[in-house]
Structure formats: C-alpha cells, structure tokens
C-alpha cells in the first residue's frame, strides 16, 4: 500500500529543510583586522597575494577595498608590461615577425586596464557577476597575448610579465569570489 502523496511530499520537504539547516553558512569576513590575510588565504596564490596587496598603515578595509588594492597591483603590472612591450617594439634587434604579437599585447594590456575600470564600476554598483566577468577578461587578455606568439611558433617575449599578470588577475578573481556579496 502506497503512502498518500502529501505524506511523501512532506517527508521530502522535511529532509530538504534538515539539509539546509545542517549546512553551516560560510563565516562572514569582517572588515578591518586581518582581512587582507583572510582573503589572501582564500586565493590560489596566498603568499603572492599577501606580498603584493599592501594596505597603508592604519587603513581600514572591507573586502571591496582589498580587491581594489589587488586591482591596483594589476594596473601597475600592466603599465610595466606595456613599457616592456614598447621597448621590445622599439628595439631594432627584435625579430620583425614578433612585432605583430607585441603590438597586440600592447592593445590587450590597454583592454585589460579598461576591464579593470569596468570591474571597479560594477563593484561600486554591487554587481558581483560583472565584476568577476571583467576580472576574467583581464586573465583572458593575458593568455591571448602569449597565444599570439605561439601561433607564429615564436617564444612569447612577454611570458614573464604575462605569468605574473595571470597570477595577479587570479588573485583578484579569487578575492572577488570570496569577499564580495
């Protein structure tokens, strides 16, 4: 004999509620204190995160503030990478075949800066999804830079810069995922 449908639905509902109640919510990240250390611990590169995301003495931060600091680190590295690319473009010893991917990298670094600006605006508007999407675009641009060299069977001339940029962009993505609501 089958139990009435209502009893079966009630049993499923009780089990779902029990599972939700039994699942602990993630601990909120409180502003101040060791928020940088707390958020950096949630990244793929915690040591690099703590070494590069450096608040000013006495600066009170929330998760968005930590992310903005991390994004500033990416901006600075993008500027350095762009200078390195421009120097290679100007160097007469640079192979002519490498000039096209170098110019593409300069453009991609500019796009990445624009993506960081859009991420910052999205974060200010409380739009976590767009923030993360724009940070993902930075990571994608870095990968695309190296791909331009590889497509021509050349050694990526900016691989050191792009490796560092990829780590820094990943740190930003991880901070956004862990700290923004």
CATH class: Mainly Alpha
Distance between the termini: 49 Å
Largest sheet composition: none
> Total strand count, please?
0
Q: Do you know the CATH topology?
A: Butyryl-CoA Dehydrogenase, subunit A, domain 3
Derived from helix and strand composition plus strand pairing, the structural class reads: mainly alpha
Estimate the global geometry from the Cα principal axes: elongated
Summarize this structure as a short list of keywords or feature phrases.
181 residues, mainly alpha, Butyryl-CoA Dehydrogenase, subunit A, domain 3, 0% strand
SSE diagram, text form:
Layout: H1 5-22, H2 35-40, H3 46-52, H4 63-90, H5 96-124, H6 128-151, H7 159-179
Task: Describe, in plain words, how this protein is organized in 3D.
Helix 4 runs antiparallel to helix 5. It is built from 7 helices and no strands. About 15% of the residues have low confidence. It has a single domain, classed as Butyryl-CoA Dehydrogenase, subunit A, domain 3. The chain is elongated. It is mainly alpha-helical and about 180 residues long.
